[in-house]
Amino acid sequence: MKKMIIASTSTVHGSSYLEYLLPTLQLHFKGVKQIVFIPYARPSGITYDGYTAIVKKAFSNINIDVKGIHEFDNAKEAIGTSEAIFTGGGNTFELVNQLYKNDILSILKEVIAKGTPYLGTSAGSNICGVNMKNTNDMPIVYPPSFTTLGCIPFNINAHYLDPIEGSTHMGETRETRIKEFHVFNETAVLGLREGSWLEVNNDDIFLRGKLTARLFEQNKQPIELKSGGLIKF
Questions:
Q1: pTM
Q2: Which residues are known to be catalytic?
Q3: Are strands 204-208 and 197-201 parallel, antiparallel or unpaired?
Q4: What confidence tens digit (pLDDT) does each residue in 135-187 have?
Q5: CA atoms in the 13 A half-sphere facing the CB of 117
Q6: Residues 41, 156: Cα–Cα separation, whole Å
Q7: What local confidence, expressed as pLDDT, does residue 172 receive?
Q8: What DSSP letter does each residue of 175-190 carry, written as one string?
Q9: Fold for the domain defined by 3-225
Q10: Strand partners, 206
Q11: How many CB atoms within 10 Å of residue 42?
């Protein structure tokens, strides 16, 4: 039975790392003593150890220890025996590249399916979908495949932004880019705004947070989904 929190971001304006999610995570990880953290997407200028230290500090507020996957002798074994897993944000291309390089994508999907509690933020949320093609990140490396976990039957566009009224910016909007994706791909895409997250309980997927999310399907008009609702399409 899948038990997942798939969040658009780790940090919302005016709060510290994971602060806005801590009440939810305290329930989500109830009974968990240690989380295995996957820092492969690491933001620019941060080491795996440095990234893990940030996460460790945040989870200390709810009395849960954190150990980075790079600290284990065997990454596959660490995933297979973990109490819970968190994949952080950063660059999705590098994250997926490292998941394939370390040969842990399959076992990660397997343990999630069996009920190991999972948290993803940003890039760690992008990999929960069918593929990573709706990431906003630059392709700084070339992963062996764009196929990801497929734990949910659609893709995530994390940090989804609406057009700014009155803006003179002439570049593509997120909506335009997603529509371009649908010229060649059938997979639905959920635009997940900052401060929003998905709660996955087996096959039931609920939108949480204060904002709506924008659902895009091929050859259909986008629709707004209300927070608290079960996502069906």
A1: 0.96
A2: 122, 137, 159
A3: antiparallel
A4: 999 999 999 999 999 999 999 999 999 877 777 766 689 999 999 999 999 99
A5: 16
A6: 16
A7: 83
A8: HHHHHHHHHH----EE
A9: Rossmann fold (3.40.50)
A10: 199, 230
A11: 22
